[in-house]
């Protein structure tokens, strides 16, 4: 299990993408307790909440500890075990497979770059929109402004050894609006929280102000994309 843990969540390693770029993997943060940005986001979650690509379960586990109905899903059996170890319910499941509660989730989380899952952010957001109830909210972590949309191949490299290539995508803050609207969401708001960037996608514009995370606007500028 320790070798599998190192491959998936070890602190040292990079994600190499077919455009020639390398991005540091954040294994230590994924395995740690929720940080300030995580907590600000989770404060808005009343549940039921679906954590897509839950990884080691820091978000699902925290929601469960707060008494919020939540479910983590991940294709990694280790991720499911680690999430269960945090007393967070989790299933080994692909987001495009049959899922419990489809069409009735109040919130869906795509955090830690998980908008890249499958290498097709448009299809992923359409799927997420279909998993939510009317008026449901998707929280999507995105790259800082300027990243645009990139789709291609990626692999995890650790200690000079690369894993299998898989499809991946990167979405910047300025690009999420068009993707969200095309997927059937009605309004998108992008927020910077403690140096990380999140988009709030809702099917009901009237609900957006009531679910946005609180932040110090002087340090974390916010704007609404229409």
From TrEMBL:
The record places domain Methyltransferase at 50-136
Q: Does Transferase count among this protein's keywords? A: yes
Please indicate which superkingdom the organism of origin belongs to. Bacteria
Keywords in UniProt for this one? Answer: Methyltransferase, Transferase
* InterPro entries to which the protein is assigned, alphabetical: Methyltransf_25, SAM-dependent_MTases_sf
GO term, biological process aspect, one: methylation
Q: Which GO terms describe its molecular function?
A: methyltransferase activity
Supply the name of the protein. Answer: Class I SAM-dependent methyltransferase
Q: Which organism is it from?
A: Saccharopolyspora halophila
